[in-house]
Design a protein that fits this description.
InterPro entries: Bac_surfAg_D15 (IPR000184), D15-like (IPR039910). By secondary structure, the protein is mostly beta strands. Helices cover 9% and strands 52% of the residues.
Length: 329
Amino acid sequence: MGAVHAKSADNAGEVGGGLFEFEEPIELEEPMPKPQIKLEGVRARVDRVHVDGLNRTKDDIIRSTVDDLFQATDFEDVILRAHKVRRALDSMGCFREIGVFIDVSSGPDATPEGLEVTFQVKELSRVVGGINTTVSENEGNLVLGVKLPNVCGRGERVAAEYSVGHRASSNFSVAAAKPFPHRPRAPTATATLYQQNHEYPWSGYKLLDRGLLLDLAFHTSAATKHNLQWEGLVRDTSVINKSTSFRVRESSGPQMKSVVRHIVSVDHRDEAVFPTRGTWVQFSSEVAGLGGGVAHLKTELNVQANVRVLDDVVSFRAFFFFSMCRKIR
């Protein structure tokens, strides 16, 4: 725990007359060296695991998550496995706060080397909403969003978003996601139904997209993520005014498109939002033409490198983008 050394207030006037006027220097005690404890050789096992604060989350998914703690053989292993379980609970998207407490086991069934691990959690609200603004394509947008986290008690979530621009653009999407944290590679299945309406006055046309996106995301390593997607949409192009070119008029009208896409990303950044070091690489390849009237091959490469220039001042970011598309018919 450490020690606190204090002097009695009775002898405070013997050193100096004022609060900061000292006639002789005070010799401060040398700091006591902190003892180093090797946790690797300390025998320990987990007798019981408690999870406090559960309301909607089902017991079976929690039980399968914390089972890994009972395989610990020493105190260091307990700490590492507890941290791993905490990350697994956080990745479920059911809780906003997760605390971990480790104590000596007590009770009639306690063992001499036993420990009790307690997770104190706070679940997310049933409904989470937000309002924000974005700027894109020379237009400001107002975005309204609502989320239903942990709908069925096993990490399922539903999200709806509606955005409207100060011109004529409007977007609407509804997405439902189901994670499988205890399956190999921790896959997550997502289905999104969307509608996008944009105007491009500089080209003389407006575009209306209605589609369905199915996505299966999984990890092959801690830094490598894969997305297998199928997207089917109906794209309706219409003319804005009489001055629109004939090339645009020829391609106007509804078209159906079916796309199969594979995205692989390798992320070695320290932070995903404001990184200061590390690299991020994403490679995307898609094939269109398995149904519908549009057929093409498309590949994209995104590379990001972050280098700190000055400590706590600024970070330099180099970004590279490459795209290649080939029309089949």
